[in-house]
Specification:
The chain is mainly α. 70% of the residues lie in helices and 5% in strands. The chain has two helices and two strands.
Amino acid sequence: MLTGMNRKLFWLVLILALIGSWLPYFNILNELVWVGPLSLPLAWVLTCNIVLTLCAIALYPLYFKPLSERIDAFERKEGGHE
């Protein structure tokens, strides 16, 4: 589990990758420079999307799995849906 500083760092990376994926739409990093077979904006957005995908995979066990377990425990305590 992430705690304290690691959790803040995780959210910082997520926010920066999210902002970074939108930079070419605002004409930042939108030059016709080639990075291997890809243009710079495409390479930048693909890299940010890879980071965002990894963050989404990491978010599941951190937030959604404990939430599901709490909801299940609450439903067991309340007797389920009527």
